[in-house]
Amino acid sequence: MKNKILLFTIVLFFIFCFVILFKGLNNSNIYVPKTISEKTLVNFNSKDLFSEIEISSDQIFVGNEFYILNIWSSWCSPCRDEHPKLMQLSKNSSVKLIGLNYKDNPKNAKKFIDILGNPYSMIIIDENGTISIELGAYGVPETFIINKDKKIIKKFIGPLSEESIKEINLILK
Amino acid sequence: MLASQIGYYSLILGLIFSVLIIPISVKNFNNNKSIDTRIFSISFFQFFFVMVSFLGLIFSFVNSDFSNETVFNNSHTTKPLFYKISGTWGNHEGSLLLWLLVLTLFIFLFLIKSSKQPKKYRILTLFFQQIIIIGFFLFLLKTSNPFNHLFPIPKEGLGLNPILQDPALAIHPPILYLGYVGSSIIFSASLAAVTQNYISKAWAKHIKVWILVSWFFLTLGIMLGSIWAYYELGWGGFWFWDPVENVSLMPWLCLTALLHCIMVLEKRLSFTSWAVILSIVTFILSLSGTFLVRSGILNSVHTFANDPERGIFILIFLFVLIFISLIIFFVFHKENNQKNVKIYWLSKETSILVNNWFLMYFLSVVLIGTVYPIFLEVLSSEKISVGPPFYHKLIIPFLIPFLLFMSIGPNLNWIKSKIKKVRIEIIILFVISLLVSFFISRKIGSVNLTNIVLISAAFYLFFITAKDFFSKKLKNYPQKISHFGFSLLILSILLNSIFSSEVITNLKVGEKFSFKEESITFESIENTESKNYRSIIGHFKIEDKQKNSIQLKPELRIYDQPFTITSEADIKTTLYYDKFLVMNLVKGNEYFNVRYQFKPFMIWIWISTLLLIIGGIFSLFKRTYEK
Q1: Where are the domains of chain A?
Q2: Given the DSSP bridges, would you call strands B570-573 and A66-72 parallel, antiparallel or unpaired?
Q3: Nearest Cβ partner of B311 from A25, A30, A108?
Q4: Which of A75, A103, A112 to mutate to test the interface with B (most CBs of B within 10 A)?
Q5: What is the homologous superfamily of the domain A34-172 according to CATH?
Q6: Which of A76, B236, B244, B497 makes the best surface tag, with the fewest CB within 10 Å?
Q7: Could you state, in order of their start, the residue ranges of all structural domains in chain B?
Q8: Rounded to an integer, what distance in angstroms lies between the CA atom of residue B545 and that of residue B274?
Q9: Which residues on adjacent β-strands are paired with residue A95?
């Protein structure tokens, strides 16, 4: 009898641990530095993917309330998964969606867009990855929300999830 | 391309073989014949195919085959060959394949080496081990296949994180895994022994070899890890209480307790339940370590990929194993099968019991410090991080009685000791150690009572074990070496932390900085190119009052793939002290941030850990000769 109570308590304890750890897994563990929010965007120069015309950041971030800058690449498989969500976001006309093509082969990048559709109103290229470093990106994909004062108000590391889409829509309202 | 394909299919073949073992062993378990030889060959093939698969992955890495996703993510053509190979296990997928390789190797070795053991016990051990192996096979194939195919084939890989490009780190994971996986054999064997009611002196003698082997590899692995942290991370320390470090320390504490406890079982057939519990807990802790590190639930410098799917798999697997072992323990384990052995208060048994209590206390401190932040975050969504002060406050005071017991315990007799055996020299040594430590404290100026007592306790153990080396009837020298090493370890850590000094300043070329007794001159700077990085080397001169000077050349390495800057410290090591200098870039400036550290007795930390390990090896050899 005593043994059974003991066994029961231990099992209960482990079930408790399991539940906690299980929930802990779903928490976001990616540490986003707080200082990054409200950081002003650095100025940079880049080229348009299709027209190959030089363009500066001042020319890109003009005339909208909000901008979403998405870093992507054709070789990055999470980007592929994320793509439908971007297509969905692009339907919102109050926002300008800019793609930053990270360390990619232009041919593959164009093919990627041809097959999966183009959600971006503009695609600029980051040939050697320096723009992404200046932006403070950790890797691909990554998404920045920038307001009209060219301040980064939010950043998502990794592919966008359903929840981050909701959060973006909340900000855009 | 081909190598990846072969690797993938031989992994599947390996899985088929390991499933095949189960019906054969069940059948063999129930009939009266001796052990089926097919089991050996299938177990060998299981190992062989995992081996082929692992070689396939190494081959893909060496050939820079970027159609393989793992290679693409972790390698680069310009990387030196050595790091291409070590890149194989420097990532999540490859390291799991290595786990599996060691698992299959160890069970095969176990089968060969256990021929004197009862048949049913061997088959059951194999059975439990197969559950673990199949679990890992499924985990690998389902969530982290190392042979994922990429198309279009990228031209270049993303590169291995440069801070992982270090010789100590390249060999440290495999060695640590040997230790972790060794504990899985202990786990399966103790479950099998419980089911068969075979917890006996003979069992203890047989399993102790495996305990020693895992303990040896685990200690060596932890040591190499901390050597890497010291030389590569450039923080000037060797242990940071980082969650991932803790995760390797926890099974070590548990295994050390088991190592002591199994001796009582071997000699006196008591502490049976305790030994079984420790065997189970050691492996469960190793596996939880894998869970904590691999799932990305912890934030740490070591965190690999953050993939909840992997986390869920290991979590479920972990708890299935916990429940299986709980059920087996409660259903099969019979406490009353032993004649109630009486334990006298002044005996070796008691002191080992006390040693176990302390180790369990240290274990729980480390466990709580590591897991509590996760629990707190889930329950109250509050983020905290537990740092070194927590561990220091809770562990250091309890080291004092622990050290004292370590010095007295081994000299007691089994069963019963008499008090009058306590001789005068033991008391004299105690007084000497008190005096020495008081003298040291006076020298630093701050007389902190805990420090004085702690240092004197460490000196006491040091003197007692040292004295035993000169006594004529030296028995059990492996234990003496290990305990001597431990006292030296504690002493050098203490003296190191008390006498260390540090200066941080910004310097440009040509400047000189003076402090207390030394001065640092930044003489010149040199740029060089290597195969996969550029480096900036600073030339510094350190001069003390007697005009003795040394040259230190710390280095900044700028890697392109992926773009990372690492700082390589330059360290001058002598028997008495380490001089440690590291520099960092100050952005947009001709100044460099320079950190200089004076660390006494640093090398003794490594030497004493080596002594601990050597003790383990001797003990292993002594047992093989005695057979």
Answers
A1: 1-30, 34-172
A2: unpaired
A3: A25
A4: A75
A5: Glutaredoxin (3.40.30.10)
A6: B497
A7: 1-165, 174-335+347-401, 501-603
A8: 58
A9: A66
